[in-house]
Structures are given as C-alpha cells and as structure tokens.
Write a structure and sequence with these properties.
Elements (H helix, E strand, L loop, with lengths): L1 H44 L11 H8 L6 E5 L5 E4 L13 H9 L1 E7 L5 E9 L2 E8 L3 H47 L11 H62 L4 H30 L8 E4 H17 L4 E6 L4 E4 L1 H17 L6 E7 L5 E6 L21 H7 L5 H12 L2 E7 L3 E7 L1
Parallel strand pairs: 7-9
Antiparallel strand pairs: 1-2, 1-5, 3-4, 4-5, 6-8, 9-10, 10-12, 11-12
Length: 449
C-alpha cells in the first residue's frame, strides 16, 4: 500500500508540474508579448519624420540600425512599400498583411507570424506623419519558451520529486500508523478502539467481525463438544449393549453346553431349559427396548389432545396387581380434567416406565403414589418410598442403560432404558422433567406440562 501511495503521489506530482509548466509558459509568453508590444510602440514613438524625410530604404536601414534584429518598413497611404530594411522591393503591396490592413482601417495594428526563416516576428504598423511605419522585432513562441526553460524546469521537477517522495514516505507512515495499530489490536484484543474519528467506521467493522468470529468459534466449540459427547455416548451405548447382551448369552451358552454334554439329570436339564428360556426372553426384551428407543427418533406422528389423568389412571390400574403382589401399596391422586397435546401411546409409555421403576426399586411394605394435577401449571408426579438415589447419581438416571441398583435390575428385568425413553419423550414434547430423591427414603419424578 505504501508503494502504491508513493507511486500515485509521484504521478500526481509530475502531472501537476507538467500542467503548471504549460500554464506558466503560456502566461509568461503572453506577458512577454505584452512587454514586446509596449517596447515596439515605444520604438515607433521615437520616429521623427524630419530625421527620415525620404522614408526610403536608406532611411529604413538607418532607423533599424539603432536596435539589434529590428526590421523597419515604410509604406505609403495605400500600403505600398517605399523602403524596407530587409530588402523588400519598393512598390510591393503589403496592404493585405494583417498589421497593415488594421493600420489602414484604424491607424495602428499588431500581428505575429513566422517569416521565411521561421522566426516568429511581432509586427506593429502605425500611421505617422503622413506615412505608414511598420516595425518588426523577433519574439519567442510558446514552444521555444518551453524548450529554453526545460533545463531549469528539469532541475526544479527533480527537486520537487525528491521532496515529494520524502514527504509522502513520512506522511504515509504517519497516516498508516493508526491503521496498523488497529490491525495489531484486532489481532490480540476482542474489542478495538481509536482516538481518530475518521477510523471509527473501521473500528466498528473490526469489532463486529470479531464478535461474529467469536460467535462462530463458540458454535464450533459447542459443535465439537456435541460431537465428542455423541461419540462418547455412542461408545458407552455400544459398551452397555455388549454388557447387557453378554450376560444372557453367557448363560444360554453355558447351559447349552451342559445339555450337550449329557451330564445333567432330569431336574438339571429342566432347570437348564428354564434358564435358557428366561435369558432368551430377556435378550429379546433388551432388543425390543433398544428398537423402541431408536424408533422414537423417527416418530413424526401428529399430536392431539389427550386426557392425562385418564391415561395415568389406566396405566396404574393395569399395573396394580403386579405392584400389590410385591407388598407395595398403590395410591392415586388424579384430576380427571387435565389435557395436554400428545399421543396416548407416548403418555402410556411415560407413566408405565415411571410406575414400574417406582415399584421395582421400592422396599417391602412401601408405596407408590401417582399424582396428576391441573390448574394454571399442570403437572404429574410418580413418587415412591423405595431405596432412593444417591446425589451423585441424580444426573445419570436418565442415561441409557444406567440402573441405580444392578441387583434389582437383574432380578426384575430392567435394562436402564426406561428413564432414557421418558426423558426423550418429554424433551420432544417440550415438558420439564425433574427428579428429587433421598437415599434410603424414596424418589419423586415430576413432569411439568
């Protein structure tokens, strides 16, 4: 940029000097012509008819000899030559010459033209004492004047160029310094500022671009974190699936090997068949749960108004026999007029998972309470008096394959996907799902619609 400014300044300076030289030469040339006209008129005033009574060639030569390079011509009243210092023959008609014609009309006239030797001559013709006196003196043309001044002009231009380049170099450095400071600030600071009002638009642009850049960096970081989380979740999901499948498969293979060896009696074979069937059912259940969990991502069926209380009551009553068979009391506190936009199968799955978990992780002679309340802020709760959840595990209960008590999970067939399904369904519906728990006393899951 600095080189471009220097080059531009040099070109502008040269063009300016060229224009200045031409204009100055033109003005100076007009001044010289005006001075020459005054001089030639003064010369004509010196003419005295008594000194040159014949107005012939001899008188013309005599008058012209007083000044270098001056030409004198005498003409009669009709414009015919009576005497000329340059040898124009007497009687030659010069009435058509510009200065002579003007003198014949108005008494005096000027003209400037080249002679036979291509010199520029300023002519002045005036009627005086009964004759026409024409005087000519050589003058410079504009081109001649420029050529004569070229050496001096060249030195002047060279000096101007040197000083112009020096001044431009330091001026450019001074002008660009605030811009360079802004660039340095933008490199190390998120917000830049300047004391120069002319640079305020640039600071605004830089600050806006910095903000956009930091926002984009935040988006990239969040996306990277999301990708890492997804990858970790994927790895954890695969590890959990492998672990959950490995247990029943190990049992199936072990008892199948025992059956194949023929070393079991009738009771042992019956037990082996029972275990193989149970573990096969458990493996099929796990696969079904995984398929159901993944199918939630593709569930695009439209929602409609559902009676939450009616659905919760129906699910609870269907599970009552299984719950009460484990010496657990089921309590219902349900408003019947609570409606939300959802689908019956989604709400059924939510309440089914929460109620089954409340019974699975309960204690003997414990209780499960299902609440559905309407009003301005409708909500649903499933509360139990079970084993509770440790505080450090509260953030993990909605993770896939996480179970609070592995012994309960294995005994009652849980896979740790129920609460993950509930969380996914609530998130898709825009509902707020929270959990409160005290270890050894019980747990309460709350959905705010």
């Amino acid at each position: 940029m600095r080189k471009r400014i220097l080059l531009t300044t040099l070109i502008v300076t040269l063009l300016g000097m060229l224009v200045y030289s031409v204009v100055s030469a033109s003005i100076f040339h007009r001044t010289l012509l005006d001075d020459a006209k005054e001089d030639i008129v003064s010369l004509a005033e010196l003419y005295d008819r008594e000194l040159y009574p014949d107005a012939d060639e001899e008188d013309a030569l005599s008058l012209a000899s007083h000044f270098d390079d001056m030409r004198v011509t005498f003409l009669d009243a009709d414009g015919a030559v009576t005497g000329d210092s340059a040898g124009i023959a007497a009687g030659t008609d010069l009435s058509a010459e510009e200065e002579v014609a003007e003198a014949l009309r108005s008494g005096s006239g000027f003209a400037r033209r080249q002679d036979s030797s291509r010199k520029h001559i300023l002519w002045y013709c005036v009627a005086k004492d009964g004759v026409l006196l024409r005087i000519g003196i050589p003058v410079l043309s504009e081109g001649d004047l420029i050529v004569q001044t070229l050496p001096t002009l060249a030195w002047f231009i060279a000096i101007v160029i040197v000083f112009s380049l020096i001044f431009t170099y330091f001026a450019t450095a001074y002008i660009l310094r605030p811009v360079e400071e802004l660039a340095e600030q933008s490199r190390v600071q998120s917000v830049v500022s300047t004391k120069y009002s002319e640079l305020e638009p640039i600071t605004e642009i830089l600050n806006r671009k910095n903000n956009e850049l930091y926002e984009q960096l935040d988006v990239i970081k969040r996306e990277q974190a999301r990708v890492v989380n997804v990858q970790e979740s994927k790895n954890e999901f695969i590890a959990n699936i492998t672990h959950e499948m490995n247990t029943p498969l190990t049992s199936i293979k072990g008892f199948a090997d025992l059956l194949e060896s023929g070393g079991l009696d009738e009771k042992g074979r019956a037990n082996a068949v029972r275990v193989i069937r149970e573990q096969s059912d458990r493996l099929s259940g796990l696969i079904a749960c995984i398929i159901n969990y993944n199918e939630l991502n593709d569930d695009e069926l439209p929602s409609y108004e559902c009676n939450v209380g009616e659905i919760a009551r129906g699910v609870a009553e269907s599970l009552r026999p299984a719950i009460e068979s484990g010496s657990i009391t089921l309590n219902l506190d349900i408003d019947d007029d609570v409606t939300v936009s959802s689908r019956q199968e989604r709400l059924t799955e939510i309440f089914g998972n929460l109620i089954r978990n409340a019974a699975r992780y309960n204690k003997e002679n414990g209780s499960v309470t299902v609440r559905v309340k309407g009003g301005r802020d409708p909500y649903a709760e499933v509360e139990d008096t079970g084993i509770g959840i440790a505080e450090e595990n509260l953030d993990k209960v909605f993770s896939r394959f996480f179970t609070v008590d592995k012994s309960h999970s294995g005994k009652h067939g849980g896979f740790g996907l129920g609460l993950a399904v509930v969380r996914k369904l609530c998130d898709r519906a825009g509902w707020r799902l929270t959990v409160k728990s005290t270890l050894g006393e019980g747990t309460c899951f709350k959905i705010e619609f």
